[in-house]
Amino acid sequence: MPHKFTPHNLRHEIAALWALSWPMLIGQLATVGMGVADVAMTGHASADELAAVALGTSIWSIILVTVSGIMMAINSIVAHDVGGGELGKIPHAVRQSLWKAAGIGVLAMLLANLATLLFEHLQLTPYVHEQASLFVHIISFGLPPFAAYRALYGYSTSINQTKPVMVIALLGLAFNVLSNWLLIFGHWGLPAVGGVGCAISTALCMWLMLFAMLAWMRFAPAYRATYPFTHWEGPHWPEIRNMLKLGLPIGITYFAEVSAFGSISLLVARFGAVQISAHQIALNFTSLVFMVPLSFGIALITRVGHAVGEGNPQRARFVAWVGVFMSLAFGALSALFIVLARTQIAAAYTSDLAVQALCASLLLLAALFQLSDATQVATSCAIRGYKVTRQPMQIQLLAFWGFALPLGCWLGLAPEWLPWRPAQPMAAQGFWIALVIGLTVAALLLSWALHRLSLQRAQGQPQ
């Protein structure tokens, strides 16, 4: 029977989605807080230490986000099994996801270390070069446990257990801040190692979070029916291959988005400290705001996956669009808040009046893309709930690398070799105008894709 749109059903779905989302939101904010703590605390050590951490983090964050995306395949797999009542399949899927995590984690570790060769081409001082490379070498030891943690994270959230990830993320943040304080500045008899202390702290934190999740799963009753560690099981390559087919498109999508924003930061840097500072502040604030629709999106993978797994595509369609409109409603509220408080937001980050003025104008553009950004993340996650990952990848690659970045270069840089170009480079503002357009393209195409996919499934058409 179709899942009818009634006030009761709407309230029930909103409540269910929010119950899943809010612990993940706090967990996501805590995870972002680790990076904020690294930068803020290292900034009090020295400018060279801060530069080394910033460079090292630029590599770490891109690889970390990509690994996170690749490991998200387990979310939809477990959600489908829960919806279909096939709980017996879940332990096998989790064990194979952990084998996949072992391979992905080691590969990511190797890639991170190879990426330090880029520092040789950035004309860095010998000290910053050495410290940035050492930062990456040390922090890369946190990638294998992070990949395994994300496998267990996806399993836990897909069986409706989201509070553990919140508690563990808050525990990780507390550990990160304390160990940063001890290692950066040399308290309690420990040597002061500066920015490298952040790398040691974060790598240890990844192992702590993995062990904390394993301990929670071992003793919490909610995991007993699907507990994956009842016996040893070797890698099953066909299963791992299927997980990679689902997860790699998500990882590529995440890489494309993060690397596009990172490229903009590098391209804006040529216009001076005011431009890059305003860009970084606006980007930092909008990244924090983005955690809310992202949490809705991750919850949508679970809710849609449950509905599809139980063989109710009509409910899956209903759930998907309720989640999209919840995300859209938050986007409208955040846009209004940014418009009204943009000068206060800029002033909270910096006392430089020139940076404040430019940042306030960039935040006005950020307010414009709140609706499209909230829509694109919710629709892409809802589509992934159907175990469809390639189409969102293609659309988001087109939006970021086909529209936003080329248009940003045209507006922001106004290269002389182009016959049609702005009279003057628009610098950061040009790139942010392009982001508005790129995110709008993504939102429109993904909304169309979700409508088409969910309607086909609801009508029982072939996939």
The radius of gyration computed from the alpha-carbon positions, rounded to a whole number of angstroms, is 22 Å
Which ranges are low-confidence, i.e. pLDDT below 50, for 5 or more consecutive residues?
none
Class by helix and strand content?
Answer: mainly alpha
Whole-number mean pLDDT = 88
- N- to C-terminal distance: 20 Å
Number of helices: 15
The percent range for helix content is: over 70%
Strand content: under 5%
Number of strands: 0
Task: Summarize the main sheet.
Answer: none
Order of helices and strands: HHHHHHHHHHHHHHH
Quaternary structure: single chain
As for the number of domains, it is: 2
Subcellular location: Cell inner membrane
Keywords: Antiport, Cell membrane, Ion transport, Membrane, Transmembrane, Transmembrane helix, Transport
Transmembrane segments: 57-78, 98-119, 131-153, 165-186, 192-216, 246-269, 281-306, 318-341, 395-414, 426-450
Membrane topology: Multi-pass membrane protein
Compact description:
It is built from 15 helices and no strands. The chain has 463 residues and is mostly helical. The chain crosses the membrane at residues 57-78, 98-119, 131-153, 165-186, 192-216, 246-269, 281-306, 318-341, 395-414, 426-450.
Written account of the structure:
- This is Multidrug-efflux transporter.
- GO terms for molecular function: antiporter activity; xenobiotic transmembrane transporter activity.
- It holds the Pfam family MatE.
- There is one protein chain.
- The chain has 463 residues and is mostly helical.
- The protein folds into 2 domains: 1-235, no CATH class; 249-463, no CATH class.
- The protein is built from 15 helices and no strands.
- α5 packs parallel to α8 (196-219).
- The two termini are 20 Å apart.
- The model has no long low-confidence stretch (mean pLDDT 88).
